[in-house]
Amino acid sequence: MKKIIWMQAVLLMGLAALWGCGGDDTTDEQPAVMPQVTFPVTESAVSAYVDDAVRFEAVIESPGPLSCSWFVDGKLMAATASMTYVFRAKGTYDVHFEASNTVGKVEKDYSVTVEGSPLGIEFSNEEETVSCLPGEEVLISATVVAGDKEVVHEWKVDDEVVSTTTEFKYTFGKMGSYTVTYRGVNADEVSVNRTWTVTVDELPLEIEFSVTDAVISCVQGSEVAITATVKNGGTGLVHEWKVGSDVVSTTAEFKQKFDEVGTFTVSYKGVNGKGEEKTSSWTVGVEEKPLEIEFSKADGSTLRSAAGDEVVITATVKGGGTGLVHEWKVGGDAVSATAEFRHAFDAAGTYTVTYKGVNAKGEEKTASWTVEVSEAGAGYMFENFETLSSLASDYIKEGNKGSLSIVNNPYPTTANPSGKVLKVDMSATTTGTSAFFDVYLDKKLSGAERVKYKAIRIRIYLGKNEYYPRMLIPKTPEGGSGQPNKMPCKINGQAFANNNASAAEWKKLVKTDDWNEFVYDLEGCGYGFSNCSEFNQVQFRPLVNMSAGGMSGFDAETNNRTVYYDDIEFLE
What residue stretches are annotated with the PKD domain (predicted)? Predict the structure, then answer.
């Protein structure tokens, strides 16, 4: 099929002018003959584009006047030997020509197929393959250079449409091979299609470590930390850290505390999604800590005991214990070569207990205590909490569930070097409470044994809490009214007028940074009982204000709702 867009007919126009059609002004009279016409385009099927001007030509070769006509789909469009026609829509058109005179007629038919305007697009990237790194943006622009009639653009990554503009802008986050396709269609439904292959890859695996030295030295108990920082090739990276053959971390960070002395191998292996591997290793040399020992009773403190009672001091090694030899002495006599001192003093008096420990490196630790031993029977230590691992619920009962517990002494001082104490903790609530707990006496000391005792002494740690702890005896004394609920009448060895004193007087006697010693004397405090056999139960109320009301609210310094008790003791 021949295209006849913009047919040139300069020569044909000259021939047509020689003989002419229609209004030709030739003066020489010529005899009429059968019309003779030739056509530069002889094919009957031709093609053209929408909106392009098409020139149709007929060459008149016979003399004399002729009548010429051009028809498009049966409609007269020109009465000359030539016609320029613009087809405005796609389709197939019938173009018919007639040239006639008195002798006869010549005809010519064309079947014209009109196609859409050709669409021309240039792309900023004419390569068929594009390479990039993960996370990089790929940009391709489409510029329409022909057939720009309401062009609709469509860009796809695989089957997903990602743009409908002249610009493709897309970030490829993962490694792989992707197909980018473009399709542009104009108003005449003429399209342009183009495909690119995008290969997303990354640089080889590269890792930097925060520790570059091959040998790491540390002291026993220290933590070693190494961080792996990925510089390239980290997609799909799996980390593995080992100490010896044991996997200890699968993150980018290695953190390990070395408690044992020795030489250890730390190794790292990282493998990314492409199977690339990075390895590294370090030798960790762990030296023993310097000799460090903690004692259950504070070094230099004074311990009090009754004749016949056992005194216990425990040495706990925190570091440097290799080859450690213990030596405990009372006066100049060695009494133990273990980590624990246990000794019963049979006679009243003041004694010196010393400790010396020497390890394999020759490091030495020494400590000493003064033990004051009173005559047996001067007092009775009802409970010092040292041998209890949990609450003795049969004779000590909490009034608020979960408020009592046996804990290690958080404030060991010379005034109270005890290892274990009773913790009263009401910090879980801010409602008003006295945080009371009951102590039942018959469980450990019979009434007959309590006849000689007329006071109860306790140790209590208040800190800066503004509490005024009381002891209540839940029994009405003979001739009395109600259950006596009293503050102590002796604080840290000083008399306290518990029934008439002010808060200011209380604060002068109470220690805020050490243990306090409170004495609740039956006569001195005004309980109304003559001795401790007249009742079987006492109730301690630590969280009360000056007027004996329960404390509410919370303040981290003056009302943290936590106190500690120790050494409940009967005195004669």
Answer: 313-380
Number of domains the chain is built from: 5
Separation in Å, CA 391 to CA 394, 400, 422, 439, 457? 9, 13, 8, 12, 20
Read off the pLDDT of residues 479-518 as tens digits, 9 standing for 90 and up: 777 899 999 999 988 888 887 788 999 999 999 999 999 9
pLDDT in tens, 44-68: 999 998 888 999 999 999 888 889 9
Same domain, 396 and 519: yes
Interatomic CA distance for residues 284 and 287, integer angstroms:
10
Same domain, 388 and 243: no
Closest CA to 296 of 313, 279, 311: 313
**Residues spanned by the domain of 541:** 380-571
Q: Strand locations in 244-332, DSSP E? A: 246-249, 253-257, 262-271, 277-287, 292-295, 302-306, 310-319, 325-330
Write out the DSSP string of 71-91: EETTEEEE-SSEEEEE--SSE
CATH number of the domain bearing residue 543: 2.60.120.260
Is there a single domain that holds both residue 251 and residue 195?
A: no
Q: For residue 368, what are its two tokens?
A: 């000493």
